[in-house]
Amino acid sequence: MSQRSAIKAAYWRGFRHGLPFLLVIAPFGLLFGVAATKAGMDLAQVMGFSGLVIAGAAQFTALQLMGDHAPVVLILAASLAVNLRMAMYSAALSPHLGRASVWQKALVAYFLLDQSYALAANEYETRPQMTRAEKLLYFAGACTPVCPLWFVATLAGALAGAAIPPEFALDFAVPITFLAMIGPALRSLAHVAAAVVSVVGALALSFLPSGVGLMIAALVAMVTGAQVELWVNRRKGALL
Question: Membrane-crossing residues (predicted)?
Fold first, then answer.
């Protein structure tokens, strides 16, 4: 296969892998559009919010605090705390995309979502022979069905507003999205250990404000996963 054909195939493979997330992105975006409208935002503010941030969890956090008339500093701090996971995502993708051009890295950073990261990280690990161009095009393909729908669904939710009945339970999209991303990643004891610790830690620290407990749980989970990985590697070495 020629390099051009391989790049094209990588893009469409990413596109196909991103399609299942449409089932959860649509209600997630609708829910944000409805919630933002009910919070008093006009259409331009809702769409500007989604267009500038593209981070559902952080947007909902900010929206809730804005509804509580929290200080701007607290709103920004809480949103950044929730979005700190993007720093972890960036660190994980850096070995694969770190040598890309500045404008390419800027686009990757802008479109870095939970979904695009999960797909890209799994693909890069499964296919280590991919070139940097293939990795970039795979990432672009994974974003193509997801990101435009986020904007369209947000717009639909903002326009529909209270017309969407609560019986639709659109908020189911949030946990379903993360379950769909986490499931395929649990391929080793280290992954499972990190997942268990993160769940237990997040629940135990849920009383902390503004997502602080979630970030502490994430850091502890990363340390746990790394230690379990080291333990497994040492055990394998001892058996050889």
Answer: 21-40, 136-156, 162-182, 189-208
